[in-house]
Amino acid sequence: MTNGSIINTNGKKILLYRGNTENGSLSSTEYLPLSQFKVGVDNSTPNIANNDLDNPIPISNGTVCDDGSNNLTGSDGGDNTTDNILTYKEGAGVVDATAQNLIANDTNATKKWEIADLTTNGANAVSTKYISQWLYIRTDDLGVTLAKFKSSGTCLEIRLGADTTANYYSQTLEASDLAVGWNLLCDNALLSTWTTVGTPGTLNNFAIIITTNNATDEFIEGDVIYDLLRQWEASDLTKDFTTSYPTIDLTNLEVTTRAYLTSLEANGFLIDGLGFFNEDTSPLMGSEDTMDGASKSDTDEFAFVVVDRLL
Questions:
Q1: Measured between alpha carbons, how far is 11 from 13 in angstroms, rounded to an integer?
Q2: Which of 95, 124, 172, 237 has the highest CB neighbour count under 10 A?
């Protein structure tokens, strides 16, 4: 990743269209001015062809399906989870300060943990929602914990549905998709596009399935931690520019735009991407920034000020 800031191809099209079209012929849905922003994580080097951030994150809370304070039931090689009040993820307005230790015994290479009452926590609208969760893999053991995950093929599966045996949506990952520390498990795809088994129906059940190299591989408290299963819609990813922005300096041929996150927004993420968008029927990203990551917590307010100058 290389830090940078660009006006991309769609941004140039917006400027050309707005600057060279008579008011009477302007379309109400095409090449509208930039008016909103997104923030993201793990953003790559800005590219003029991009029309979105690599990994946009929800600014608004969305819907919390499980806040991490509920114990999961273990089966196969998994034991019932225990509370972890030292290592957890904030965000989505959650204040429980609790995550779950995924405990694994030495009876089966497949380890499963499940919650069977998600609807009591607000899960809904599977076809129009995105979903994510956090998974922590111990960082102070020189990679020993991660090395237990199956080294080839699927080592991690997430299931959501009416049950987790015959009617569910499924997302799978390999060991190469994971790293020590916190992993944001989100593929930025609608849940309805996940692999479908049977008739998923209502999101009653949630399961985490980890496959290790050996049946004897164990996880103790703190090795692998789960927290914060949440849903959101596309509208939760965007926010309007600060009121009265952008401002235009006709003397220096500059435009200044300000994007602001309150202490309640986009918490729990290491933010390193910023994109400005319009509100076309299919929104266009007009500019993209990649910067050094900054961790956003509920004690932080972020203001992004971008100045563009015509030369």
A1: 5
A2: 237
Largest CA-CA distance found in the chain, in angstroms, rounded: 73
List the pLDDT tens digit at each of the 311 positions of the chain. Answer: 679 999 999 999 999 988 888 764 556 678 999 999 999 999 999 999 999 999 999 999 998 989 999 999 999 999 999 999 999 999 999 888 999 999 999 999 999 999 988 866 555 545 678 999 999 999 999 899 999 999 999 999 999 988 999 999 999 999 999 999 999 999 888 888 899 999 988 888 999 999 999 999 999 999 999 999 999 999 999 999 999 999 999 999 999 999 999 999 999 999 999 999 999 999 999 999 999 999 999 999 999 999 999 88
**For the chain, which domains are there?**
4-59+238-309 (no CATH), 63-234 (2.60.120)
The one-letter amino acid code at 296 reads K
Whole-prediction pTM value? 0.92
Cα 279 to Cα 286: distance, rounded to the nearest angstrom: 11
